[in-house]
Specification:
Blueprint: H1 2-21, E1 23-31, E2 42-47, E3 50-56, E4 62-69, E5 71-78, E6 85-92, E7 96-98, E8 103-104, E9 116-118, E10 131-137, E11 143-150, E12 156-158
Parallel strand pairs: 1-7, 1-8
Antiparallel strand pairs: 1-4, 2-3, 2-5, 5-6, 9-12, 10-11
Length: 159
C-alpha cells in the first residue's frame, strides 16, 4: 500500500514538473512615443481569438506574464489615450520571452484637438506676429492656459 502511494505521488510530481517545464511567458516594456513607460497598460495574450492570460504594466510600463503553454500567440497592448498595439505570431516556449522595450503605442488621434486659424485686419490684410493664447475653460468658470503662439507672416497659427 505504501509503495503504491509513493509511486502515485512520484508520478504526480513528475507530471507536474513536466507541465511546468512546458509553460513559458512573456515580458517587456510598453512605452509612449516620448520614450516614457506607460503605467497600467493592459496586455492580453490571445490564442485563436480567445484570452489566455492578461496583466497590467507597473508604474514603469513593465510587465511579466507567466504560465502560458508553448505555442504561437497574438499579444494586444492597450492604454487609455493610446492606439491599441498588436504583435502577431509570438512564439512562446518553455522560458519567458523578452519582447523588449520597443513596444511603443502611438497617441490616439481621438484625444487630440488641432486648432488652426488666421488673423486678419478689418480691411483683409494678414496680421504678422499676433499673440494667440489657447485656454481651457473649466466647469467653475476658471481658465487654464494650455499654450500660446504667434501668427506667421501669412497671419496663420496652429496648436
Amino acid at each position: 500500500m505504501i509503495r503504491s502511494i509513493t509511486f502515485a505521488f512520484a508520478s504526480l510530481f513528475a507530471l507536474a514538473s513536466f507541465s511546468l517545464a512546458q509553460s513559458g511567458g512573456v515580458k517587456g516594456k510598453v512605452k509612449a512615443p516620448n520614450g516614457k513607460g506607460i503605467a497600467n497598460a493592459s496586455i492580453v495574450v490571445l490564442k485563436d481569438g480567445k484570452e489566455v492570460r492578461s496583466a497590467n504594466t507597473d508604474s514603469k510600463g513593465e510587465f511579466r506574464i507567466t504560465g502560458i503553454s508553448a505555442g504561437r500567440y497574438n499579444i494586444a497592448f492597450d492604454a487609455t489615450g493610446y492606439s491599441t498595439g498588436l504583435k502577431h505570431d509570438v512564439v512562446i516556449e518553455s522560458s519567458v520571452r523578452d519582447l523588449g522595450d520597443r513596444l511603443i503605442l502611438t497617441y490616439d488621434r481621438g484625444t487630440f484637438v488641432i486648432v488652426q486659424g488666421s488673423i486678419f485686419f478689418k480691411e483683409g490684410s494678414s496680421v504678422t506676429g499676433a499673440k494667440i493664447q489657447l485656454e481651457q475653460v473649466n466647469g467653475d468658470g476658471s481658465t487654464k492656459t494650455l499654450g500660446s503662439t504667434y501668427s506667421n507672416s501669412s497671419g496663420e497659427f496652429s496648436f
